Amino acid sequence: MPKIKHVILSWARKTSNLSIEDAAHKLKLADSKDISAAEKLAAFENGTKEPSRSLLNRMSKLYHRPLLTFYLDKPPGIGDRGEDFRTLPEGFEGLENAYVDVLIRDIKARQNTIRETLIDERVWSGLLILFDKQLISTSKSIEINLAIKMRLSYCADK
Predict the structure, then answer these.
(1) Are 123 and 147 contacting, i.e. CB atoms less than 8 angstroms apart?
(2) 46 plus 100 within the same structural domain
(3) Are residues 37 and 29 in contact, defined by beta-carbon separation less than 8 angstroms?
């Protein structure tokens, strides 16, 4: 079974803009008589302890990272999010940048899912709707819509 890369644990926490104390608290790590919750998290991050699968799942949710990220050899590069035209107040700490990065990753993942659905369903041929720099025709738009809904398990009635 592959081992997690401990460098990734630290990187994921830092890119989520969480201190080690905040992350330990939000991960619901408890203090023991010998070691604090923050020290436990530090032990996971420096490789002296292995996190459980349930702790990895909680880290994945808290840090807004896929579980597989923790098995990468090195941290992924920072994506280009374009020029930022926001006017930020004094003392801005960058937490919003972490949220923007999460949203961009989510949007790109959804775009890839839709793109794969279109390729899997072989609906690229003969379409006329502009979609991701590809021309798609309206004659197959109902098929495309159904294929995307099935792939995403989307139901408008919910």
Answers:
(1) yes
(2) no
(3) yes
Q: Nearest 10 degrees: CA dihedral of 89, 90, 91, 94? A: 40
* Any domain includes 40: yes
- pLDDT in single tens digits along all 158 residues of the chain: 578 888 889 988 988 888 999 999 999 998 888 899 999 999 999 989 999 899 999 999 998 888 888 888 888 776 666 666 767 777 666 666 677 777 777 787 788 777 777 666 555 444 444 444 444 555 556 666 676 776 666 665 55
Reduced DSSP (H G I as helix, E B as strand, rest coil) percent helix, strand, coil of the chain, to 5: 55, 5, 45
CATH number of domain containing 67:
1.10.260
pTM for the model stands at: 0.57
Strands of 4-109 (E only): list them. Answer: none
